[in-house]
């Protein structure tokens, strides 16, 4: 995401590919995801991440920089599957895009491995302005605008966001706050109800 | 909400109606709403609420009990307008219920006075299990089940929750995380797009 010379992205690519440091970096990232998911952005500290990864805080700063940059790197990892969503959505025929988008998103939330970083993002973005702005930047640039580019309507971006809002709201109620009966409803039943709504927002009249 | 003999509700009603203590109680509640909205459940302390209300912590405990009970009382206040939603929804003819529900909810979020406690609830429920369970209990008992009772369908509760999810998702994107263009879109434009979807969830085929 950060492609500027000093950003974490280029720093990572510029570093010599020693197995040990790659392993350490991944361990720090995994610890960061756990910490952000458990505690949210505010209550997570670089020191806590370092401790949970079994390394010194200085090493976390060395690899990533500030707490905001660690968060951005952790979110970037969580965004890899989101880019799958985007690509799946972009590859689908336009009249199938609602179901495709709905299925991929539920797939991410139903999978316990991808659910954790998603929870981390949601919890942090809801509670902290820095995290919210990282989230806004990535979601807007990587997802919303790209999907909107496929839709031939003057209000394409608003359409994508209304569709996303339906999915975000269900994720909140089913996976984050866990309100019944939607939390335990059969996922196919929910998809069957939601996909046409998402499609309607995207390409409806 | 708490109607048991020891609950905050009966304690409040049982207390002699001295102007001073009523004023103090309201000041504590207002401070609690501010603190929960700013910091979320986890980072809010009874001591911080007391300090911001200009009273001793012991007085907060005296009026409300534990932090969870202060939170419940603060949420209860935030829920008063939600009951307006419910009553408006229940009073509407069934084929107008989608627009009514949408309008009342946007009314609450557009109003800076009611937005703050809503933000407090969302932030806390997303980040803390105790807060989430207070939220679940209130939303389920006071809103979802009551509205579902008006809808003649075997999956009435799921319908209400899918409708609510659309509104929750828009609130998240527009008011909490503030993603553009939905954050600045004309509210009437958004209502016009969303009300039919809410109606469809509630009473559609």
Automatic annotation (TrEMBL), chains A, B:
One of its GO terms (molecular function) is DNA-binding transcription factor activity. Keywords: DNA-binding. Coiled coil: none annotated. The keyword rRNA-binding does not apply. Residues 1-26 are annotated as: Disordered. It comes from the Bacteria. Residues 22-82 form the HTH tetR-type domain. InterPro entries: Homeodomain-like_sf (IPR009057), HTH-type_TetR-like_transc_reg (IPR050109), HTH_TetR (IPR001647), Tet_transcr_reg_TetR-rel_C_sf (IPR036271), TetR_C_16 (IPR041678). This is Transcriptional regulator. It comes from Streptomyces zinciresistens K42. The lineage of its organism: Bacteria, Bacillati, Actinomycetota, Actinomycetes, Kitasatosporales.
């Amino acid at each position: 995401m950060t492609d500027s010379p000093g950003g974490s992205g280029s720093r990572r690519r510029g570093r010599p590919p020693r197995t040990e440091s790659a392993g350490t970096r991944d361990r720090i990232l995994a610890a960061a995801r756990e910490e952000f998911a458990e505690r949210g952005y505010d209550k997570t500290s670089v020191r806590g991440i370092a401790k949970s990864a079994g390394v010194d805080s200085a090493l976390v700063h060395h690899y990533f920089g500030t707490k905001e940059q660690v968060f951005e790197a952790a979110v970037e990892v969580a965004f890899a599957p989101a880019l799958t969503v985007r690509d799946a959505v972009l590859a689908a025929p336009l009249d199938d895009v609602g179901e495709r988008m709905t299925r991929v998103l539920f797939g991410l939330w139903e999978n316990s491995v991808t659910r954790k970083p998603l929870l981390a993002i949601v919890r942090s973005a809801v509670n902290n302005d820095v995290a919210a702005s990282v989230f806004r930047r990535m979601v807007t640039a990587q997802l919303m605008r790209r999907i909107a580019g496929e839709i031939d309507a003057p209000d394409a971006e608003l359409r994508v966001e209304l569709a996303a809002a339906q999915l975000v709201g269900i994720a909140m109620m089913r996976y984050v706050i866990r309100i019944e009966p939607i939390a335990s409803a059969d996922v196919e039943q929910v998809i069957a109800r939601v996909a046409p709504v998402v499609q309607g927002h995207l390409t409806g009249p």
